[in-house]
Amino acid sequence: MAGPKLAEHFDSLERQNFAARLGMWVFLGSELLIFAGLFALYVIYRMMYGEEFRIAEQHNDPLYGTINTAILITSSFTVAWAIHTIRAKGSRGVAVLCLVITILCGFGFGIVKSLEYAHHFHEGIYPGNYYAFYVDHNGVNMFTAGAKTFFTLYYFMTGLHVLHVIIGLVVLVWMTVTTMRGRWTHEHYVGLELGGLYWHLVDLIWIFLWPMLYLTRN
Amino acid sequence: MADQHQGHDHGHHSGTPQVVVFLILLVLTGLSYYVSLPEMGLQGVVGMIVALTIATTKASLVVWFFMHLNEMKSFLIRAVLPMALLFLAIMILIMLSDTMARTTVPIHGEPVQAAVVPGAHSASPGEGAAHGAEH
Questions:
Q1: CB of A204 less than 8 A from some CB of B
Q2: pLDDT band for position B1 (50/70/90)?
């Protein structure tokens, strides 16, 4: 296998790796700021429509959210373990297995999310002006401005997050293929590390979406 | 910036912290779900603070151990996430300083059409055209 390539504008491989890491972290910071607007909207609207948000949130089944949280945390661990295995000169097969499990977790997350969306659509819960949930929830009217705003934000936040899951899956496939081909060694694994960072970001965002959309309902 | 030593110890890289952190994350997830149950009586703001505190703890563990920020000795790399969070805080605070200071707030419990789109019932095509001409 050919070793890692040193681009001519870098003095050393160490410098090149530092630039790659810094670039990735800045990218992750800007990814966070994509979601920042939605987090801010959530805070503002929650203060405006506290009670209606709370009731709308009660309608979200925490079972879906909790299963998905467990799935993503597991996948975050498996991708971290894959990179650890490469760094500790462990078996390449173990690393590939970990990455495959991560991919399966990603698909599992998508399947649970689809089931949840289907459930919501079935009830007439659509984003924005398509919101048509006329049924009362435990005797409380759900056709309110607050509930509509909550579910619109819910779709936007989870939708944007699922988009990141899909991109992360593409990255994970690339990581799996390159690992199988033996591209990474215990000294040179930066590409693998950066791909892993992206998947951790997907997990990080969900760690906050979960309490915001499922747990703070009392 | 001259010596950005990453501080990677290639020889003795232990995986124990990763496993421990994984288990802690699962426990915290279970805990967060458990205390959110209505029977636990954590209501309103208290419930939110508890939920977000646990979430922040989990996120910190992921960033520090899974994402290996503990090995990134570079100040530049370590400063990125706090800066992003600072910008998030500034954005939320400035937006709140507007919305909290408004004298007219949407009326709670009003039907969607009336509360969310003020002026939707009065907006006729003619009026829209007049507005367009003004600006």
A1: yes
A2: very low
